[in-house]
Design a protein that fits this description.
This protein is mainly α. About 60% of the residues lie in helices and about 0% in strands.
């Protein structure tokens, strides 16, 4: 069986009135706790600021991508209309230019919309072969 352990009798504490030493130790403890908390607060503030900066950068990138997408879609919508308007103006002016005896310019090729950039082909790396070893000549 397990031996039962008797609890040691507790010492009776007497009320000791605080003195200057107690005040000094309490103030040191307060200073240490305040210093620790101020460091932790500074670290929290730094982490929060870094997080806000990262969020702002991400928002700017997202806004830029949205803007570029919007500009591309507007360009795709407007460019054919501009080409059509230009050809209509040239068609209406052609008879007037003929009456005046002026030659109309040669018909321009219809401008095509911008093509997306082609993806670069991935290069295959050749396997590396070790260099041939040359036998060292004996020292003379």
């Amino acid at each position: 069986m397990a031996a039962t352990r008797k609890n040691a009798p507790r010492k009776k504490t007497t009320n000791v009135e605080p003195n200057l030493r107690h005040v000094w130790l309490a103030s040191l403890g307060l200073l240490v706790a305040a210093r620790r908390e101020s460091k932790a607060a500074a670290q929290r503030a730094t982490a929060k600021a870094e997080g806000a900066i990262a969020d702002a950068r991400q928002a700017v990138k997202r806004a830029e991508a949205d803007l570029r997408g919007g500009i591309d879609s507007v360009r795709d919508q407007v460019q054919p209309k501009v080409v059509k308007f230009s050809s209509d103006v040239e068609a209406r002016l052609a008879p007037v230019l003929d009456k005046l005896g002026l030659k109309s310019k040669q018909k321009r090729a219809v401008r095509k919309t911008r093509k997306p950039a082609a993806k670069k082909p991935t290069l295959r790396r050749a396997t590396r072969k070790p260099a041939k070893r040359v036998a060292k000549k004996a020292a003379r």
